[in-house]
Amino acid sequence: MSSPARRSAPVGSPTTQHKVVAMGGGHGLAASLSALRFLPSEITAVVTVADNGGSSGRLRDELGVLPPGDLRQALAALCGDDEWGRTWARVLQHRFDSAGDLGGHAVGNLLIVSLWELLGDHVDGLDWIGRLLGARGRVLPMSSIPLDIEATVRQPDGRVTEIRGQAEVATTAGEVMSVRLDPTDPPASLPALQAVRDADWVVVGPGSWFTSVLPNLLVPDLSRALHETQARRMLVLNLEAQRGETEGFSPQRHLEVIGAHAPDLRIDVVLADRDSVDDVTRLSAAAKDLGAALVLESVARGDGSAQHDPLRLAATYERIMRLPL
């Protein structure tokens, strides 16, 4: 017997259906999309394509394709919260457990790459998978070519070194000082550019700050569209610093990093979990430096984990999108 569907109706009763672009990658973007799918919004995920580890890295190296892992996670997050959606999300995220060639590969990665090979187009392939899943939005790569992340890192012994690769930057023992893309001027996905230009809201974060959040701001054409769009821009902070990548960073330090990498980008709202902020005054000042108002809400699960609660986050997004900014 099928299990009853959980709540998938919109939160509250918003009067306007917004066009929302969510930018990032990995678990952070998935958390944001899991919340946005509860709102009556037209959702587009613009996803980083710099992963070089695990199943994605293997497929990238072997076939020369975009790393599919972050795209897969975004698709899974947009699956409906009913039996169909939950089943397909599990299928996409399922990993083969074996000592052979398939060991560690995610089913969704293989499905995505199969569609790319058959159709010869990244966006077309992702759109077909979205239709199959009944996804509550569209998933697009930020660039049409695979990228690499390079970082300047201060090592524990004080030396400043250069590190290459998303996986390597994410797990470094040193302090990441800055990141850049290789190539530095990659072609942006044209549908992603259009989505940003047409959006009512652009949501950046949460997620791995240097390897998921910042890369979208470093693609020149995408950055230009983000600067020029009439959309309001919301930056969502993580619930805690990430071990390795941003270990020891305060919430305001995360904002300072955004300002250093995208100095002309103006943000309208910075959203933070109220229980994750120790110094509201300093965080509010850092938000003001970006042109933003600081919004503090309880958006964590409340179970001690550093994870956003989809319904709490959805309700907060709805309230913010109604604010007269």
TrEMBL record:
Primary subcellular site in the record, as a coarse category: cytoplasm
GO molecular function annotation: LPPG:FO 2-phospho-L-lactate transferase activity
Keyword terms of this UniProt record: Cytoplasm
Biological processes, Gene Ontology terms: regulation of cell shape
GO CC annotations on file: cytoplasm
Subcellular location: Cytoplasm
Entry's family note: Belongs to the gluconeogenesis factor family.
Biological role stated in the UniProt entry: Required for morphogenesis under gluconeogenic growth conditions.
The protein's name in its UniProt record: Putative gluconeogenesis factor
Protein species of origin: Mumia zhuanghuii
Gene label: yvcK
